[in-house]
Write a structure and sequence with these properties.
The chain is mainly beta and 361 residues long. It is built from four helices and 26 strands.
Length: 361
């Protein structure tokens, strides 16, 4: 059955988009050459943070487009290359749906880890790194043995999984994850899960976040085809070892939405400064997909400058404390695209299963 499912999913197609590959200058200054040779004439010096579209990829060089439409060349080892990894996205989505269909056939429930506990006073400085060097806020430890010892990895809140063995006489629970052959074991006292939204069929809506390339792909399955609806430049989270975290990698399910996400800066010196970000969609812990965040209590001119600065850096650098920043129009598109409902307390919840994939490599 696995091979049949894989074949059906493999032939699904993807539509092209207007995304163009580009490079970012990661150093103070870089020489742009007239030809793809190190001893070629320097046309100009470009500064850190500048972006240029790639018109051709050579062995050791990129041909780029300058603002005057002239062609020029930069060594590929001296720039950061950005691409939309559609093939990887399709493999990831297919893998998740294979996982879902196989477990439905096994009469196993596909659920989400529920480890989010909102607490502004949490001591984030004590969050250690797992065996892969990652730190995750609102995560739990998963071991590869039922003694709950040795190497371990983080499971982040809202991560998709299946409960394999749940013996109340044991202190552990065995789980399996999409795209993972190994089984993992979690401490029973730490483990809670959610069945909402219910997953009883393939997921048809995906938001794919690429931590490496700082872009995002929005897919929907229509008539057995994967349709790439949008590509977007984003900024994800950076890990400073203290109060900021890299956006967690994994497969998550959207839990709720907010018209505006209020936030508090985790820096101790600025602990009282609050801000908000529009069209927020929560996918893991306190991490949301949202529009450009702006601090409260600043004048209109400063707000405009700050917003423009943050928007211009999308697609270039990790800037958030864990969330995924988008242009406001992209965030609104996602917000409206997810079928949702408001209850009497103005809580907004999805009416369908929408998956968020975050990958690094």
């Amino acid at each position: 059955m696995k091979m049949i499912i894989y074949f059906v999913l493999l032939i699904l197609s993807v539509h092209a988009t207007d995304f163009r590959e580009y490079v970012i200058i990661p150093r103070d200054f870089l020489d742009v050459k007239e030809e793809a040779k190190s001893n070629s004439k320097t046309i100009q010096k470009v500064i850190e943070g500048q972006r240029f579209f790639v018109s051709a990829k050579l062995d050791d060089w990129f041909e780029i487009e300058l603002k005057n439409n002239k062609k020029a060349y930069v060594e590929n080892k001296k720039v950061s290359f950005r691409e939309a990894r559609t093939e990887k996205a399709i493999l990831e989505m297919n893998g998740i749906n294979i996982f879902i269909l196989e477990n439905i056939a096994r009469k196993k429930e596909v659920v989400m880890l529920n480890s989010y506990a909102f607490n502004e006073k949490i001591d984030v400085s004590n969050i250690e790194r797992d065996s892969k060097g990652k730190r995750v806020l609102h995560g739990i430890k998963a071991y590869n043995n039922n003694e709950l010892k040795g190497n371990w990895i983080y499971l982040a809140d809202r991560q998709v999984l299946v409960v394999e063995i749940n013996d109340k006489n044991e202190k552990w629970i065995e789980i399996s994850l999409p795209n993972e052959k190994n089984k993992y074991y979690v401490n029973r006292k730490e483990f809670r899960f959610s069945k909402f939204p219910k997953i009883n069929k393939e997921i048809e809506k995906f938001i794919v976040v690429d931590n490496l390339n700082q872009n995002m792909l929005i897919y929907e399955k229509k008539k057995n085809d994967w349709i790439l609806l949008k590509t977007a430049l984003i900024s994800t989270g950076y890990d400073n070892g203290k109060n900021s975290f890299r956006t967690p990698s994994g497969i998550f399910l959207v839990s709720n939405l907010k018209d505006n996400m209020l936030y508090k800066n985790r820096d101790k010196d600025n602990n009282l400064k609050k801000g908000q970000a529009p069209y927020a969609v929560r996918f893991s812990g306190g991490n949301y997909l949202h529009g450009i965040p702006v601090e409260e209590d600043i004048d209109e001119r400063r707000e405009m400058i700050l917003r423009k600065w943050r928007e211009d850096l999308l697609g270039s650098y990790v800037l958030s404390q864990g969330c995924v920043r988008n242009k406001d129009e992209i965030a609104k598109y996602i917000f409206d695209w997810i079928k949702h409902k408001r209850n009497k307390d103005a809580y907004i919840y999805p009416l369908e299963a929408v998956a968020v994939i975050v990958f690094d490599k």
